[in-house]
Amino acid sequence: MFLGVSMSCRFAKSIINCLLFKIVKLEISKFSALASPRVIIAKARAAAAMASPPLGSYGVEKSFGITADIAAPSSQIRELLILCSTAVEAGDVPELENLVAELVNSLNSLYEDVASDPGSTDLENNVFQVLAEILSLLSLPVDQVVMDALSFELPKSISKFANISSRCLETVDNIVDRFVTACSPRDMLSILCEALVAVRGSIGASYCSTPLLHGFSKVIPSIQRRHYEQLKVAVPVVVKILKDISLETEVEVEDLFNKALGVAVSIRDVCPKLKSEENAKLRSLLGLYVLQIMALLSVSIRDKVENCLSLATELAPFLTYCGYTYIGLITGHDTETGMRIIAGDDDDDDDDFINSLSDINLGASLSVIWAKISNNVAQAPHSDLSDVMNELQNNQVKRWQTYGMLKYVISSGYLLWEFRTHAIEFLLDITKEVTPSHGNDEQFDCSQYTPSIYTALQAVTLVIMHAPNANLRKKTFDALKRVLSDIPASQRFDVLRALVTNSQSPSMTAILLDLIRDNMSKRSLQAEDILCVDTHVLELVELILRPPNGGPPLLPEQSDAVLAALNLYRFALLVESKDGKTNSRGVSSEKNLRKVYEEWLLPLRSIVTRTIAEIHGHGNKEAALDIVCSINPIELVLYRCIELVEDKLKAST
After folding, report:
1. What pLDDT, in 10s, does the model give residues 350-399?
2. Could you tell me if 242 and 351 lie in one domain?
3. Which of 18, 86, 239, 421 has its CA 20 to 30 Å from the CA of residue 290?
């Protein structure tokens, strides 16, 4: 019933507008031959004002319940639109520009009213009538000069009204569609880019962007030439807006990304029309765009992963179309190839383009994680995920590359924990058969992958500290040990040392120092590495017992790290004693022994003694007991270290 009334109202308005347009033109024709353009415009204003009484005068108010107050803004918009056509007929282009500016100001004023009272039904009706007025008049035969002038400004102004109601959204969508149909595709591409940037800060930006994104998907197939060059400029704008919106707390995910998917569909439909070289470039552009959308879609999920499974499933076939495979995605090969094709143009805009696609590696990794979550996604790129697992289990270099790619998922604080859990499980799956790599059986050089592996392990340590449940923390710790075992011994200690040096948590520092102790077996190192390890052990112990920012370690706050450092030093002394050899420059050298004894151990003993004395005067017995439990193990290991050092110093004299 309502739909029928609404359509009848629009039909009636369309007839009225057509009649008004003819009345104004008739009035103008009486004096246009003799009068100047300015006189014509003045007469046209008077004619338009006389021909634009409130809608209620036509009986529409009575029939459809629209009040005269609400109809007034739409009458003003109607008058301005009619005058725009009059200005062109009079040959007064400056006046046309002034009228368009006046029209935009009226729309902006209306938007300010809505923003100040977002729940007003009257204002919603008001906005809808204004939008309907614009659509109605744009649907009439309009001079192309007028259409072009309006197209440069109106998409930015009207798109901000799309979030007010569903009927406003639909009308805005139709207006944008009208401009896309009537105006130059090349111009509309840049106009829509500007409009997207303009609505970024609007209330409900996810709603306001959807008509513009829909306009993108419709204008792309209409582009006649230089498709790649134009889309290379436009796609980063779309991506930046989507990224900003996806990080908002309230996002209409499904509709927004459906429109973003529509852009991908349009680009794909254009590809077969192009010659081989431009086709390859546009496919690369499409592939990178889809990976970016995959990342942004995943980041925007606030509730359950399953809510966006259908969208992820629809994105997956594009991976096959662009020549991607799961092994290429998870190792980073496909993204590197795509960026190499794009960056091969040597354009000045390449840096901006590359920066706009900063999440493609996250999207590539998430594509594989989505395939792990759902078989529907896994079936899209024609490769079995189990085959990918087998290949990674049997190829160490590709495992190293995979660690570097998974860091993007594991380190992302915007993703749901479910994604990071699947990433940790993926790590465990591909490292099932990994055995510790020893110095004498290293086949490949890991040095080029070490920085990315280190970054991945940093992300893993954060999961260990912040995971929401004990089961995930245990899995992540197992993954940490397995990945470390997969690093050649010659670089493993360097990675562990870097992790300790940059750790911000005393508890995590303690865990890492314990792992260093486990990896200190001289049998796993080449002879030339032993001195290096001894030197680094001393560096790490000094880092804890004599912090670089000055002063002794804080107790009991840093008790975990202090205890682990003492255990590591004691272990190093015992290992060297067991071998029966004393390295003149290693842990047991007289110089190092005296330094440790005088600068580390004795000052620490004073701190421990003072802390224990303070405990006895502590008023809170429960807090005092906690401090005692953390200090007592330190005291025991500290005195054992002092004894060992004193014995070695006596033996050396």
Report:
1. 677 788 889 999 999 999 999 999 887 777 665 678 899 999 999 999 99
2. yes
3. 421
Let me know whether 338 and 396 are in one domain.
no
Instruction: Provide the H-helix boundaries in 487-620.
Output: 489-501, 506-518, 527-545, 559-579, 590-595, 602-616
Q: Please tell me whether residues 394 and 461 are part of one structural domain.
A: yes
The CA-to-CA distance between both ends of the chain, in Å, stands at: 105
- Give CA–CA dist 606/552, Å, rounded: 10
pLDDT single digits (tens) 170-187: 999 999 999 999 999 999
* Contact status, residue 570 vs residue 640, Cβ threshold 8 Å: yes
Pick from 87-96, 103-112, 448-457: least confident = 87-96
**Same domain, yes or no, for 309 and 391?**
no
Do 399 and 438 belong together in one domain? Answer: yes
Residues 6+ apart with CB under 8 A from 94: none
Query: Is there a contact between 511 and 457 (Cβ–Cβ < 8 Å)?
Result: no
Q: How confident is the model at residue 401 (pLDDT cuts 50, 70, 90)?
A: very high
Of the residues 487, 511, 537, which one is the last residue of a structural domain? 487
Query: In one letter, which amino acid is 381?
Result: P
Round to whole Å and give the CA distance between 458 and 417: 17
Please report whether residue 608 resides in a domain.
no
Range of the structural domain that residue 79 is part of: 1-144
**Between helices 276-300 and 360-373, what is the axis angle to 10°?**
70
Residues 362, 367, 371, 374: is their CA dihedral positive or negative? positive
Residues 353 and 273 in one domain: yes
CA pair distance 77, 119, nearest whole angstrom: 23
Torsion angle, CA of 157/158/162/168, rounded to 10 degrees?
Answer: 150
What is the spatial distance between Cα 38 and Cα 235, in angstroms, rounded to a whole number? 43
Do 304 and 247 meet the contact criterion of CB atoms below 8 Å apart? no
Determine contact, residues 568/540, Cβ cutoff 8 Å.
yes
CA distance 32 to 37: 8
Highest mean pLDDT among 93-97, 143-147, 331-335, 535-539: 331-335
What dihedral do alpha carbons 147, 234, 160, 240 form, nearest 10°?
-170
How far apart CA 273 and CA 267 sit, in angstroms, is 11
Q: Mean pLDDT over residues 516-542, rounded? A: 68
Residue 648 CA to residue 588 CA, distance in Å, equals: 7
DSSP 54: -
DSSP state of 279: H
Q: Rounded to the nearest 5°, which phi and psi values hold at 359?
A: -110, 15
Give the 3-state secondary structure of residue 75: helix
Q: What are phi and psi of 586, to 5 degrees?
A: -95, -155
State yes or no: pLDDT of 5 exceeds 50: no
Amino acid identity for residue 638 in this structure: L
Query: Residue 490's pLDDT is what?
Result: 78
Last residue of a domain, one of 487, 516, 540: 487
Model confidence at 442, in pLDDT bands (50, 70, 90)? Answer: low
Phi, psi dihedral angles at 380 (to 5 degrees): -70, -65
Torsion region of 408: left, alpha or beta (phi above 0 gives left; psi -120 to 50 gives alpha): alpha
Q: Are residues 209 and 306 in the same domain?
A: yes
Residue pLDDT, tens place only, 155-168: 999 999 998 999 99
Rg (CA), the chain: 35
